[in-house]
Design brief:
The complex is a heterodimer.
Chain A lengths: L1 H16 L25 E11 L7 E11 L4 E11 L6 E3 L5 E3 L7 E12 L8 E16 L4 E17 L4 E16 L4 E17 L1
Antiparallel strand pairs in A: 1-2, 1-10, 2-3, 3-6, 4-5, 6-7, 7-8, 8-9, 9-10
Chain B lengths: L1 H12 L21 E3 L9 E3 L12 E4 L5 E4 L15 E6 L6 E6 L2
Antiparallel strand pairs in B: 1-2, 3-4, 5-6
Classes of the chains: A mainly beta, B alpha+beta.
């Protein structure tokens, strides 16, 4: 895990050095780059859809996400994402015999909206043709709601994941990936602090800007 | 860091002996999946349960009693088996629903 954090810190320091769009020259993607897909521009957006697996107080269900990518260096891209999870609203919280509020939601319960900040690194040694595997790591946070239990929470978590990007054209690529989220949340209605442990699998498209 | 991750994973995997289906404390029907046996001497602090006609309609480890129109309660063999429900619960013999004999179950009273 410490390796992930180091990768994140390195990537984050890259953000500080990256020139803002429109204020400088974007990375020259016309030159041959063996560290990342040749069509990967300095900026891109993406739309993803998938499933999120949660449980207890981690939301799960249908996942929809929007991404913004910004090049940090030859191999790394900033990946900022707004992610929304839509699951069942059925009640699954109760008071145990010690009068502690316990939530035991299923894998696809609850609603969540999060903002994630990660760094994506391509793995050129594993690339094959237009298929480029990558890993990503970062942090996220957001709001979780279990409506029928009237339980709302704020979450913070670490993200680690992997995926595969395949170029379709000069401006479009398809991407699929899986992420693991591990963190903590603070919840209302006497639930208190709860661990967050979720898995997200998604696929979608990226569009060059 | 490693210990923190292990702690989070272990906490995420913990489970309770009771549930909204059977055994949770309750004051209203909304506290349970099906029925709330309101706090009383028979059901101290309230008791979430499920309406039933036979034992098969109850969760594992529970029996269907000839009470309140047929409700599920935890099976037991002796008083210590009921301590997880808190003070006031002991192991008692009661009629099973539908004349199916007797059952030893956790309850107050």
């Amino acid at each position: 895990m410490s390796r992930w954090l180091i990768a994140l810190v390195v990537a984050t320091s890259g953000v500080a050095h990256a020139e803002a769009p429109g204020l400088g020259t974007p990375a020259d993607v016309s030159t041959t780059n063996t560290s990342a897909p040749a069509d990967m521009s300095d900026q891109a957006i993406g739309a993803m859809i998938g499933v999120a697996g949660g449980g207890r107080t981690t939301p799960g269900g249908l996942l929809v996400a929007g991404h913004y990518y910004y090049q940090l260096n030859d191999q790394d891209w900033f990946d900022g994402a707004a992610t929304f999870v839509f699951g069942s609203g059925e009640p699954d919280c109760f008071r145990d015999r010690a009068d502690a509020m316990i939530c035991d939601h299923g894998i696809a319960d609850g609603y969540g909206g999060t903002l994630n900040v990660t760094a994506r690194r391509f793995l050129p040694s594993l690339a094959s043709g237009t298929f480029w595997p990558f890993v990503r790591a970062g942090v996220g946070g957001g709001i979780v709601r279990f409506s029928d239990d009237e339980v709302t929470g704020i979450t913070l978590f670490l993200i680690g994941g992997t995926g595969l990007r395949a170029s379709v054209s000069d401006t479009i690529a398809v991407t699929a990936g899986a992420d693991l989220e591990l963190g903590v949340g603070a919840f209302t209605n006497s639930v208190g602090f709860e661990p967050q442990l979720g898995v997200r699998i998604s696929a979608g498209a990226e569009f060059k800007l | 860091m490693r210990f923190a991750i292990i702690a989070v994973v272990l906490a995420a995997c913990q489970s309770s002996d009771v549930s909204r289906e059977l055994g949770a404390r309750c004051d209203t029907r909304n506290d349970c999946d099906d029925r709330c046996l309101l706090p009383s001497a028979e059901w101290p602090e309230g008791f979430c349960t499920t309406a039933c006609e036979t034992d098969l309609e109850c969760p594992e480890g529970a029996a269907c009693l000839e009470e309140e129109g047929g409700v599920c309660a935890f099976l037991c063999t002796a008083d210590p088996g009921c301590t997880f429900l808190g003070p006031g619960y002991t192991c008692k013999e009661r009629d099973a629903r539908g004349g199916a004999g007797k059952r030893m179950v956790c309850r107050g009273g």
